[in-house]
Amino acid sequence: MKTMQQIPAKAYHSSGFMGKYQELVRREMIPYQYKVLRDEAGNAEKSGVFANFINAGKTLRGENAEPFYGMVFQDSDAGKWLEAAAYSLAAHPDEQLERECDELISLIAAAQDEDGYLDTRFTISDRDKRWTNLLEAHELYCAGHLMEGACAYFDATGKREFLDVMEKNAEHIYRRFIVEKAEGYPGHPEIELALMKMYRATGNRHCLELAEHFINCRGVDPCYYEKEKEKRDWTVWGNNPVDHDYQQNGKPVREQSDAMGHAVRAVYLYTGMADLAAETGDSELFAACRRLWESIVNRRMYITGGIGSTVHGEAFSVDYDLPSDTAYSETCAAIGLMFFASRMLENEINGEYGDIMETAFYNTVLAGIQLDGKRFFYVNPLEALPGISGVSPTHRHTLTTRPGWYACACCPPNAARLISSIGQYAYGEKGDTVFCHLYAAGDAEFSNGIRLRCETEYPYDFTVNYTVSGNGRLAVRIPARCGKYVIRKNGNNISPENKSGYVYIEISDGDTVTVELNDAPRFVYASEKVPALTGKAALCFGPMVYCFEGVDNEGDVLSLSLDTSENASVGEYDKTLLGGTRKLTAKGFRREKQSSLYSSEAPKKSPCELTAVPYALWGNRGENQMRVWLNIG
Amino acid sequence: MKTMQQIPAKAYHSSGFMGKYQELVRREMIPYQYKVLRDEAGNAEKSGVFANFINAGKTLRGENAEPFYGMVFQDSDAGKWLEAAAYSLAAHPDEQLERECDELISLIAAAQDEDGYLDTRFTISDRDKRWTNLLEAHELYCAGHLMEGACAYFDATGKREFLDVMEKNAEHIYRRFIVEKAEGYPGHPEIELALMKMYRATGNRHCLELAEHFINCRGVDPCYYEKEKEKRDWTVWGNNPVDHDYQQNGKPVREQSDAMGHAVRAVYLYTGMADLAAETGDSELFAACRRLWESIVNRRMYITGGIGSTVHGEAFSVDYDLPSDTAYSETCAAIGLMFFASRMLENEINGEYGDIMETAFYNTVLAGIQLDGKRFFYVNPLEALPGISGVSPTHRHTLTTRPGWYACACCPPNAARLISSIGQYAYGEKGDTVFCHLYAAGDAEFSNGIRLRCETEYPYDFTVNYTVSGNGRLAVRIPARCGKYVIRKNGNNISPENKSGYVYIEISDGDTVTVELNDAPRFVYASEKVPALTGKAALCFGPMVYCFEGVDNEGDVLSLSLDTSENASVGEYDKTLLGGTRKLTAKGFRREKQSSLYSSEAPKKSPCELTAVPYALWGNRGENQMRVWLNIG
Question: Which pLDDT value is given to residue A593?
Fold first, then answer.
């Protein structure tokens, strides 16, 4: 029995902070990404996504076709873009965008083989290589993203064509892996969570069975990929099939305890597992999810909600190995962590999930996006140092400014679909109870008939006003960081029970409920088990981690340290600063830079005022130093 | 005109601290390494060095031979071992060892081709590949090490056979690169400095010309290796010939300013350059050496004298990129830095060179060697953390305990030859002046007739007594770290001029000179330009950097910080501790470990006493945490 379910993306109409980002996605990211997919964005790397579907269709019709272009997972960008566009259409009908979507969907439909197979890489050529390289070839991954796009598009427009195409594709996969009992499981998990969406959209139990199958068989034969490799004479990247940690297949998923391997793959897998556990009430599977969750949030996660600390394999490292300067912390992995958290909420209402979801969102996910919506970080270090970052051999992956569209374009469309569907993560319901996991300004409608209007300047102000239409219960997450808070109903203070991080308030039509969080700037300390962070503090405000950039601090943050005995103070909201934000100022010290590399003279330090801005907004003012964690004293 | 010249290794008979290490080399390392080279050391990786020379000889005589075994530079281990053995023989005649050397030399002689070519890899087979891959094949590198061995053996024993073999080899190389004008320069510099030794041992000016040629032509055509690669159809490791930084060939050496690329190759090259500059008085070349020196010691060197901070290419990184936990800091690179420093002293008497030489020696070089002389670090991190070091993908190269002999066995024999010839680095002379660059207990003889007896417990005590035989001048380096010192001649305080870090004292037969350094434990701070070290301090005593190991500090050093406002104190010399050493104790704090990964509660800290031992001796008491740099406060 699910503890709650997400509302559809279309059931939320945003305003405020969320509205601003949804507008950025709608006005900038979706149109820009559309051009990219059509190879019409002049300064971006060639994508080939549209062209691949066109050429696959031509191949199927026996016409001359151009070769496949791009990465083996290129089709997935179509799925992610359509998913983002669908959510956007649901909130903002737009004939032209819908036409563009329909056109791409027609191309996708025409690229589907008679038997339901759909993947342009192995349709344009190499037909004999289909399904021979689950480890690397991403066929199930691409299918998963297209399925997610199809579900979103059906939900937004009611049009079935895309959903039908993907249901046919799901049946193809079902025949292969269930009916014909082909061995194997996805190299890059994703289809598991997508099949759960397909099951809910179509009611087709084959989708549920297939999701369950891929989850249950993973790691039962840890050597599947080795055997598969022996049978084939080709490779995509020469991946080592013996790296079971990287592949999350060292043992059956129910026996796994440590979050390991490629971080995006890991959290996509865990999301599918949690989704299935909630759907089927599988407590053993949920227990595994919980262990993996704790492994992440208690030992392997940055303060920013970033995960996957090492560039080697874009992967989780060992416990407490969380370097700031060489962090990988991929934007997509933080997005995946939000997925995982949201599915955990379907198993257990616990404020911790929402706390992590907003940490990942307000910090790593948003840091991935330039304020203009046209440039993106894949890698989100917690320290950036011109001259070292991007240059030193160990820091090549950590850039100091966001580049444009990459050849491997996973993060920008992933961020676009997440933001345009943020209502799903912000709100849920069960019976007559509506859940507010995130403070997302705007209007939300629930299938139980309740409507909420949420007004707030969160994350820069901590008063949240709900206006209720309908009767039932309102469950609002109170962040664990807020020791004190005030709840008012219709202007009167009330003291509802706080149960696992949620306050539950009886609501009647016309009620107003106000939540006032006591959120002041605070210093945060890492466990002394994290070698990179001993003796340091970070400065946070609300859900946002702040950072110190050179541009606000005389061009140098390396010589700064914090005086944590003095409270930091908050600036007024400044709409001219970084698209609108509030600065923090803290007391601290600046040390004189020694000319010699080592000296037995302690560097002279003098008191100074330090300025911090949200980590989400760093790198928007040219190349300069950035640090999240500063030394104390 | 040289400012001074090294004394021969045999002119120094060690006692005290140096004597202890020379004994370790003589009693343990040389015999152990001999067994390794003969594949008779049971637990070591197979070496094949003896076998390769035997098989090359057989091939030349038309007999059946086994294939070549090992790395392409395997022959160099013979050169390094013979060099170490030669120095040891000079100080400690040993018939059996001399017989073993002679036997190996006969094998080497028999492996030399008629035309003087000598490299078992391309003699046993692949004769047609000779000289076709200077980038990777290490023929000139192996020749260099064998030349160094030959010079040392001639010097120690007066026997010419090995020297004649290598002079014939030098003539072969001379014909190829000078007479026949073959293009190219060494992929791994080493022969340049070896040819300078050959020139001094044989007086053969072809050796000098050849050294000069390789130095002068390096980088004049930066694309030499690319052209070479196009002409060949084989590779050793698939090295990228376009990586000019790695290869130190982006521009002519006289135009280079930043120490770059593979650290051992770099300092071997710079050593050859400095040697040539001193020999020929080439001021432009010396200016380049000085720039490169400053690049290293002012911006790219660990406090331990370790260089080459990144595992990627075992190379120098960019300025100030000096991470403690992922440091590469190869033992051989620190040895090479000592070579470079000693040759700089031949150009310019400046205490800085000796300061760096002893820093590298007493810290990184000695840290490379287990106290039993049988296990070795190649990589010398400044922080070791069981659970992360050796395990995390970014820390795989940093081990917490010393392993035995490696397949790539460069460091152990390199340390052996350095230690057994330490007198060369400790003492020098020019005219009637004798130089003491290092405080090395024992007896030194100079060609000017002066003899010195040096008595000291340095580096654990800072009184150094010299007893003089002969007349002239004594020049003693005063470390820059010692602000105060006392000099006594025949019991009376004197105040000789301190000129560039050396005090010059007139000496007559029978004089005693005492140098008392004011060396107390001191905290050292890095420039705030080093991101990894901001807000931290290290604890040093004399030339030794100390470190904090878990075994002395309740099993955990991560939660420790230093109170640098209180002086550290020195324990008595304890001969039972780590083979004999002095502990330091400092005041500081221990923080309570938080159970949560991040918390806004500052961790409680309580005052405590911290114990430190010399970094050179870390990792000798099992696996445990180690940190050189601690936070302050």
Answer: 82
Contacting residues for A450 by C-beta, under 8 A, at least 6 apart: A429, A432, A434, A468, A469, A470, A471, A472, A507
Q: Is B516 a catalytic residue?
A: no
**Chain A hits for B523, Cβ within 8 Å:** 600, 602
Is the domain of B299 the same as that of B383? Answer: yes
Name the domain boundary from A357, A387, A420.
A420
Q: Which residue has the tokens 């010691």?
A: B297
Per-residue model confidence as pLDDT tens digits over B202-259 = 999 999 999 999 999 999 999 999 999 999 999 999 888 999 999 999 999 999 999 9
- Would you tell me how many other CB atoms lie within 10 Å of the CB of residue A95? 8
* Order of strands across the sheet that contains B492-494: B12-14, B442-445, B451-456, B463-469, B512-517, B485-489, B492-494
Between the two ends of chain A, the Cα-to-Cα distance in Å is 51
**Residue B203 resides in a domain:** no
Q: Do A526 and B319 touch (CB under 8 A)?
A: no
Residue B1 or residue B332, greater confidence: B332
Beta carbons of B394 and A559 less than 8 Å apart? no
- B500: domain CATH number? 2.60.40.1180
Chain A contact for B529, CB < 8 A?
yes
A554 touches chain B (CB under 8 A): no
Check: CB of residue B50 under 8 Å from CB of residue B38.
yes
Do A258 and A384 share a domain, yes or no? yes
Same domain assignment for residues A363 and A511:
no
Interval A563-578 mean pLDDT:
97
- Give the separation between CA A396 and CA A472, rounded to whole angstroms: 54
Residue of chain A with shortest Cα separation from B633: A633
Is the residue at A199 inside a domain? no
Asked if the Cβ–Cβ distance from B317 to A528 is below 8 Å, we say no
Instruction: Tell me the average pLDDT across A526-546.
Output: 97
Would residue A626 count as lying in a domain? Answer: yes
Mean pLDDT score, B403-411: 70
Instruction: From B377, B404, B375, B373, select the one nearest B389 (Cα to Cα).
Output: B377
B320 vs A contacts (CB less than 8 Å): 387-388
DSSP for B383-452, written as a single string:
EE-TTTTTTSTTSTT--SS--S--SS--HHHHHHHHHHTHHHHHEEEETTEEEESS---EEEE-TTS-EE
Identify all chain B residues contacting A597, using CB atoms and an 8 Å cutoff.
Answer: 297-299, 301, 526-527, 530
Same domain as B565, residue B469: no
Q: Is pLDDT at A405 greater than 90 in this prediction? A: no
Residues B371 and B416 in one domain: yes
Looking at the complex, does the CB of residue A321 fall below 8 Å from at least one CB of chain B?
yes
Mean pLDDT of A193-199: 98
Q: CA of A255 to nearest chain B CA: how many angstroms apart?
A: 22
B403: closest CA among B361, B369, B353? B369
Binary contact (B393, A313; C-beta < 8 A): yes
The enclosing H or E element of A589 equals strand A581-591
pLDDT at A406: 62
Residue A296 and residue A401 in one domain: yes
Residues 283-312 of B with CB under 8 A from A: 297-299, 301, 303, 310-312
User: Of B479, B500, B517, which one is at a domain's C-terminal end?
Assistant: B517
Task: Judge if A407 and A467 occupy the same domain.
Answer: no
Residue B454 catalytic? no
Establish if B301 belongs to a structural domain.
yes
Question: What number is the ipTM of this complex?
Answer: 0.95
Domain that holds residue B558: 522-594+601-632
Chain-chain contact of B522 with A600 (C-beta, under 8 angstroms): yes
Helix (H, G, I), strand (E, B) or coil at B125: coil
Structurally, how many domains does chain B consist of?
3
Same domain, A508 and A551: no
What is the residue-wise DSSP string for A271-308?
Answer: HHHHHHHHHHT-HHHHHHHHHHHHHHHHHSB-TTS-B-
